Protein: Corrinoid adenosyltransferase
Amino acid sequence: MDEADEARHADKMRKKQAARETIMATKTREKGLLIVHTGKGKGKTSAALGMVVRAIGHGMKVGVVQFVKGAMTTGEKAVFDAFPGNVEFKPMGEGFTWNTQDRSRDIATTRTAWDEVKRMIADPSYDMVLADELNIVLRYDYLPLDEVLEVLSAKPEMQHVIVTGRNAPDALIEAADLVTDMTMVKHPFRSGVKAQAGIEF
Amino acid sequence: MDEADEARHADKMRKKQAARETIMATKTREKGLLIVHTGKGKGKTSAALGMVVRAIGHGMKVGVVQFVKGAMTTGEKAVFDAFPGNVEFKPMGEGFTWNTQDRSRDIATTRTAWDEVKRMIADPSYDMVLADELNIVLRYDYLPLDEVLEVLSAKPEMQHVIVTGRNAPDALIEAADLVTDMTMVKHPFRSGVKAQAGIEF
Structure:
């Protein structure tokens, strides 16, 4: 690239920066977000964990309740346990429905986990609350959707709440501020690779 | 739900578990994955950070190079710096092209960051390497795609490499084992909310 090209690039970037500043000047609000990660692809829980890391790093107080994961030791637990003042991490599930094979017990487990989420959301000292795989238990009708929407709509103004899991209900997407659909393009399960440490847990 | 319903549920779940076990028995391989997070939605970097957290929690050694982020203090940096034995975290960018306004300098910055990624990938003691926003610099032609593909294809067998950023090149998607497109459903920027701690940085 010669000098004239370099100058044209710099000029173009100055204009782009000015245009961006005009746009960004309109983005002035801060508010607690209701965030939903759904879709069939990988990354729903991982992206929520990434946000938890960022929040911890800013000294925020975070509550995490996992609705499906429980007994299994996960990498996230080992890290979050190193920040007991910042993050309360509660894997409260008992695995998948086909493992427990007991619907009444699944419903009771879900209720106990949801009570914990409700407690955290009601407490404005939590800057972020993650309800991991909540969409899964909603899909099974283990919790009434109306009750969940009511609790979410009454969250403290500045608190971020993240809900993950495939098949997010339409009404939840409607209520949310930030929704990403993790769309599967390629998954290694398809070529016979098993769940691996650091990736899936 | 009455007793007969409960029994039917348990029976259905036993069958589902058996079917799943048959499928899972075919997922036996372990291998280092080439992972790509792309798409216009939020969650590409966050999901990569979540995987870094899981890897750290399992005592793995992780290298992170950020191609765009640099000067800005991020939440992830504060947390990862608490695990100096596990994670080498290098924000090596200087911001966006419209901020630097200097194409030659951007290319030189990219080259320095890429040299660091190459060093990590060549070293099998790294269990995971994250090249954050590499797709962005590829899009600007700040690095030759062929060189990047060659380095990625020569990575150690058991090492996971994660590449993030929108507009992943087709050839990279082709080469990858796990690809998720973070599809934007709703983004709070659209309603005037600015980038916030814990969410975007």
Remarks:
- Residues 3-24 of chain B form the longest helix (22 residues).
- Residues 1-30 of chain B form one domain.
- Chain B has a mean pLDDT of 93.
- Chain B touches chain A through 83 residues (CB under 8 Å).
